[in-house]
Amino acid sequence: MIFLRKVVFLFFLAFSLLFATSLDKIKNISRENLDKAIDMFLDYVKGHPKDPDIEKVGEFLFAKKHLVEKYPFLAKEIVSEDLKGFLKKLKTFPKTFSSKETKLLEKIFPDLKSFIEDLQSVEDILIYPSFWKLGIPLRIKDPESFVSKLIERFFEDPFLLSYEFITALSKIENSKELGEKIVSNVEKMPLQEKNYPYMLRLFEIARMLGYNRPSDLEEELRNYFLLSAKLSASSSPKELEELVTEYEKLTIPKEELRKKLLVFSSKVKRENSEDHRYYYLLILFLPFLFFFSSRFRAQIYRIFGAKKRAASLYLKLLQKYPENVKLRLKLAHLYEELGMHEEAMKEYEIIKKLSQV
Predict the structure, then answer these.
(1) 151 to each of 103, 210, 328, how far by Cα in Å?
(2) In the predicted model, is pLDDT for residue 116 greater than 90?
(3) Per residue in 91-105, pLDDT tens?
(4) How far is it, in rounded angstroms, from Cα 23 to Cα 323?
(5) Rounded CA gap, 184 and 161, in Å?
(6) Closest by alpha carbon to 184, among 144, 149, 244?
(7) Cα gap 40→352, rounded to integer Å
(8) CA angle centred on 149, ends 143 and 153, rounded to 5°
(9) What is the DSSP string of 267-332?
(10) Which DSSP string do the residues of 141-164 spell out, in sequence order?
(11) Nearest-10 Cα torsion for 157, 162, 168, 174
């Protein structure tokens, strides 16, 4: 009989211990139901006021409650203690946390600081580009290896270096060192024209990261693309001479630019010879043109092939009548005929905006 009583007593003792409320159990419940966990914690405090772990668990629970109430957008990740999900969601989080809030987050995510410090690869930064919003410092331990991989990935995917990603790089403690490594790598690359856009983009990124020394290669690349843009916008023989002079000053390989210059040269000569065909007819009409409106004169110029003169007249008219869609449409068509596609697109954009008013 005594033995049976002991067995029953031990059974109930084990049962009560199994289902008794503990601080660990409260913490586990808080991952699914924070309010219930807080209620259980308050009851636990009444029954176990001297438990040495009460303060630590209380700080943990009320850190959760404070952050959930302030940032409901992140509530799911905070309550469930999903650190990776939390860091990924920061991409769309428009604010940065105060140092006080970061300390609260460290109570919920005890590995937060070490996790941030371990973001040492390009892939890590791509996955968690908003780490800097937490105010926890990050320093890349092997800048050479990091930059080498960064450039490799960039050549594979030019859209890799987004504004978000570059912002993340600029927040790294030794970002200037990364910028210097980028420039060092670019200056060792073989000079191939197909790679010039990538190389110039890398120079721009290095500047964003704090690199501030002059570079002859960077200047050459900029002049290369500036000349390329001028070849698309210019048209007169005088401008051609200036562009040839600029071309000759370039010391980097420029075969593709040379081909473009030859095409441009042929175009200038052809356009100027075509314009001269109609000059004698215009001379005959000049005494009479002044008696007609600017619009009519522009139309005459266009008929006789003096398209640039016609475009010039339309531009003057648009200074007086900037909202005249018909005039802008005629000017856009003229630009297209002259091969000035960028200017034509600008006019079409203005026409589109005016049509929506």
Answers:
(1) 35, 17, 45
(2) yes
(3) 888 889 999 999 999
(4) 73
(5) 18
(6) 144
(7) 63
(8) 140
(9) HHHHHHHHHHHHHHHHHHHHHHHTTS-HHHHHHHHHHTT-HHHHHHHHHHHHHH-TT-HHHHHHHH
(10) S-HHHHHHHHHHHHHH-GGGS-HH
(11) 60
What's the Cα-to-Cα distance from 66 to each of 1, 71, 99, 166, 275, rounded to whole Å?
A: 56, 9, 14, 32, 76
CB 1 within 8 A of CB 21: no
Contact predicate 215/246, CB 8 Å: no
User: What residue type is assigned to position 69 of the chain?
Assistant: E
Nearest-angstrom CA–CA distance, 33 and 357: 53
Tens-place pLDDT, residues 165-193: 999 999 999 999 999 999 999 999 999 99
**Residue 210 DSSP label:** T
**Which pTM does this prediction carry?**
0.66
Render the burial of 140-161: b for 16+ CB within 10 Å, e for the rest. beebeebbeebbeebeeeeeeb
> Which of 25-29, 277-281, 293-297, 328-332 shows the lowest mean pLDDT across its residues?
277-281
Amino acid at 348: Y
Alpha-carbon distance 333 to 339, whole Å? 10
* HSE toward the beta carbon, residue 245, CA cutoff 13 A: 6
DSSP 8-class letter at 236: S
76, 34 Cβ separation under 8 angstroms: no
Yes or no: say if 209 and 170 are a contact pair by the CB < 8 Å rule: yes
Count the residues in the chain: 357
Q: Is the pLDDT of residue 279 over 70?
A: no
pLDDT for 8? 40
The residue among 323 and 180 whose pLDDT is bigger is 180
Q: Reply yes or no on whether the pLDDT at 231 is more than 80.
A: no
- Measure Cα distances from 333 to 292, 308, 351 in Å: 22, 12, 12
